[in-house]
Specification:
Aminopeptidase; 35% helix; 8-stranded mixed sheet; alpha/beta; 2 domains; 9 helices; Alpha-Beta Plaits; elongated
Length: 393
């Protein structure tokens, strides 16, 4: 089976590169993946996979049934949405949808799963059980396409005992992959704040209630939540990335608008931190004479890789790629809505290396110059197919 899958992955590489380039040229934002979903649907038809349905608007779930299909089900997941970024790469497959870009590699994820689908469909008489293919919308935007897919039954009829996902990693060379057991990625919550005061002339601050000064004190004070209340062994991040004070050199505005994020790896502390953040922000603002509208939108939970499944997947990766090409991962404070799946079934989320320094392919995800070494798609589709078959036993 190992050699069969490797041979098929090599044979399908050029086709899958073509799929990835089509997706890269035609990116769509979260929950607007209409053409992407149609493309995926048609590709599944072309493969001969007809046992499929649409979920959550633009999501698709499909089944590949082997012999004794009811024996066990394993799910493979890919996300399909892009980001609101203007692409700076000058490549033949540059985004044709100006202002939207596959800057997080979801085009590679979708193409890899379509490639794995080809391989698995070719081999369906060689394994027992069912493989569920999940093409998911809206990973980049709350409430997360995974949560909606789950609500609409993606993990039912049949229910997978395990679910596996992969994500590109430009820090890892193409041909290599990375795994981490247990807690891997952070929860993510969005913070929206309006600090209100009394605006006026900058030369007469005594007649105003300065929301700029108040907001500044609030931001600094809130860092105490992480530095003095979080357990030092439990990573936490509180950052504000947007501050709008629409005044002028001599005009103090009436209000200041802020947006930020809170992330951690412990759900109990996450809930406690929310309470502390709200209480401290309110006390600082009101103590300085202002008022505050403070909203914390609960986002994705922390992502936990099942230790047993992850150990088995790592062993499978070593068999497929060689031990030297399988790396250990550190905790990653970014977030992923794959975490919702990890709350419902045994889950393993690993990293696919896409870096090629010799070709200058080194840019981070979520940047205008992000790209992948396309040879990594051979690893992406082949390893997913191999791990799925291994887990079916």
């Amino acid at each position: 089976m190992h050699q069969k899958i490797k041979s098929l992955a090599s044979g399908y590489l050029n086709d899958v590169i073509g799929l990835r380039r089509h997706l890269h040229q035609n990116p769509e934002l979260s929950f607007k993946e209409f053409k992407t979903a149609e493309f995926v649907w048609n590709q599944l038809d072309a493969i001969g996979i007809t046992d499929k349905q649409k979920l959550a608007g633009t999501g698709i779930v499909a089944l590949i049934k082997g012999r004794n299909a009811d024996k066990k089900t394993v799910a493979l997941r890919a996300d399909m949405d892009a980001l609101p970024i203007i692409e700076a790469n000058e490549v033949p497959y540059k985004s044709q949808n100006i202002g939207v870009m596959h800057a997080c590699g979801h085009d590679a994820h979708t193409a890899s799963l379509l490639g794995a689908a080809r391989i698995l469909n070719d081999l369906k008489n060689d394994f027992e059980g069912t493989i569920k293919l999940i093409f998911q919308p809206g990973e980049e935007k709350l409430p997360g396409g995974a949560s909606l897919m789950i609500k609409e039954g993606v993990l039912q009829n049949p229910a997978p005992s395990e679910i596996i996902g992969q994500h590109v990693m430009p820090l890892i060379d193409a041909g290599k992959v990375g795994f981490r057991s247990g807690i891997y990625m952070a929860s993510t919550d969005e913070i929206y704040v309006t600090v209100k005061g009394k605006g006026g002339h900058g030369a007469m601050p005594h007649l105003n209630i300065d929301p700029v000064l108040i907001a500044s004190h609030m931001i600094v004070a809130l860092q105490q939540i992480v530095s003095r209340h979080a357990n030092p062994t439990m990573p936490s991040v509180l950052s504000f990335g947007k501050v709008i004070a629409n005044g002028a050199t001599n005009v103090i505005p009436n209000e200041v608008y802020l947006e930020g994020t809170f992330r951690t790896l412990d759900e109990k502390w996450r809930t406690e931190a929310h309470s502390r953040i709200l209480k401290l922000a309110t006390s600082v603002v009101e103590g300085m004479g202002g008022t505050v509208d403070f909203e914390i939108r609960r986002g994705y939970p922390a992502l936990v890789n099942n230790p047993t499944l992850t150990a088995a997947a790592r062993k499978g990766a070593e068999e497929y790629l060689g031990k030297e090409n399988v790396l250990d991962l550190d905790i990653w404070m970014a977030a992923e809505d794959f975490a919702f799946y990890s709350q419902q079934a045994d889950a393993c989320f690993y990293r696919l290396g896409t870096r090629n320094e010799s070709r200058g392919i080194t840019s981070s995800v979520h940047t205008p110059t992000f790209d992948i070494e396309e040879k990594s798609l051979e690893t992406g589709m082949g390893l997913m197919a191999y791990l799925a078959v291994k887990q079916l036993g």
